Amino acid sequence: MYEVELKFAVADAQGLYSQLEKLGANWSPPVFQCDQYFAHPSRDFAATDEALRLRSVGDEHILTYKGPVLDRLTKTRREIETPLAIGSAAAESCQETLVLLGFRPVRRVEKRRRSATLVWQQTSITCAWDEVPPLGVYVEFEIVTDDAGRAAAAETILALAASLGLTQSEHRSYLKMLIERDQQK
Description:
Blueprint: E1 2-9, H1 13-22, E2 31-39, H2 45-48, E3 51-57, E4 60-71, E5 76-83, H3 88-100, E6 104-120, E7 123-132, E8 136-145, H4 150-163, H5 174-184
Antiparallel strand pairs: 1-5, 1-8, 2-3, 2-6, 3-4, 4-5, 6-7, 7-8
């Protein structure tokens, strides 16, 4: 499966949030997500545009591989998610295994996320409202699809963004933005 997404920095949080609610977004309660990213022992994920992440939300943990970006306009990429057993022991064992295999922890990304689904042009779109200290507030639109649906998913997300007046998408990951910020200190 492929993840087709666009992310935008939010300048007018209340206005955009209201617009999305008018379109049918019914927001979930916020959850705290902690993402630990890893560097590969023999290839540079920054150069190959890949990512390996262990996401923790409470006692739930998911190991995610994100492949290279295939479409720069919408940040389309292959994504493989592997849920782990419930509880902190599973996450600790996974992280220990990765380290023993030569992977190196790079950085944690922590955020408060609210999620919603809305239907736009007869397509279900997942929306994420992220508060990422110290970066600010971002909104993401995502459709998960097979290879045949990638182009239509990209068109749908681009049309939604345009209808909301969102024109400057952010293609950097939160990880990359935080690393760049860390280097400026």
